[in-house]
Amino acid sequence: MKRLLPLLGMLFALLAFPAAAQTDDAPVEYTERVPAENYGQPTLHARANDWADHHFAYGPKTNFVSDAATGTVSVQGTIKLKPVDNKGQNLERTARFDFNFKATDQGYTYSVSNFRVIPDAQQPGQLVSLDAYLSLLRAEKNNDKTKNDRRVRAQANAVASDIAMSFRSYMNQIPTAEDGSVGLPASESAGN
């Protein structure tokens, strides 16, 4: 039993080390490459364009650009981040992000990235990168109490993940009517 306790202690220390060693320096973003060889670039682009134009829930959206020739869609979205004040009351900060999509005949790549925050509601034209905003929060004297830097980073990560899940779910439900390869052409099936 005396030998087992130190071994268990070392095991717990080793398991806890990766979590403790993680840094908060990684950029907040979500990028995924999805193979989709059953659909061509036009079908994938049309589906992504429809999502960005009609189902994008992170508005107001701006800079919506869709190019069928290159298979790209891009849009800027808006979210709310909520640090807290000294009394624990939510403060609302507007943030912007970029959604980018590129289709090929082999699949598609999409990303949610480039988060920027309006740190002062009185100056809505002033945007700073999320990393710069997190540095501002870290420098606040009450950050040990509020943990706003971690709170806001977690919120931004959660939103990036939600956007990605929403988009991927929509892309996974491509109706067969949008894919031209389903069924036989009318001229071939008419003679049988």
Intertermini distance? 79 Å
Q: How would a crystallographer describe the biggest sheet? A: 6 strands, antiparallel
Helix/strand structural class = alpha+beta
Specify the CATH architecture.
2-Layer Sandwich
Q: Estimate the helix proportion, in percent.
A: 25-40%
CATH topology: Alpha-D-Glucose-1,6-Bisphosphate, Chain A, domain 4
**Total DSSP helices:** 6
Low-confidence stretches: 11-22
How many independent structural domains? Answer: 1
What is the string of SSEs from the N terminus onward? HEHEEEEEHHHH
Roughly what fraction of the amino acids lie in strands?
Answer: 15-25%
Pfam family, one: DUF4468
InterPro entries: DUF4468 (IPR027823)
Keywords: Signal
Protein name: DUF4468 domain-containing protein
What does this molecule look like?
The chain has 192 residues and is an alpha+beta fold. It has a single domain (28-171), classed as Alpha-D-Glucose-1,6-Bisphosphate, Chain A, domain 4 (2-Layer Sandwich), CATH 3.30.530.80. The protein has six helices and six strands; from the N terminus they run αβαβββββαααα. Strands 1, 2, 3, 4, 5 and 6 form a six-stranded antiparallel sheet that branches. Helix 3 (130-139) runs antiparallel to helix 5 (148-171). The longest helix is centred in the last third of the chain and has 24 residues, at 148-171.
What attributes characterize this protein structure?
192 residues, alpha+beta, Alpha-D-Glucose-1,6-Bisphosphate, Chain A, domain 4, 6-stranded antiparallel β-sheet, DUF4468, signal
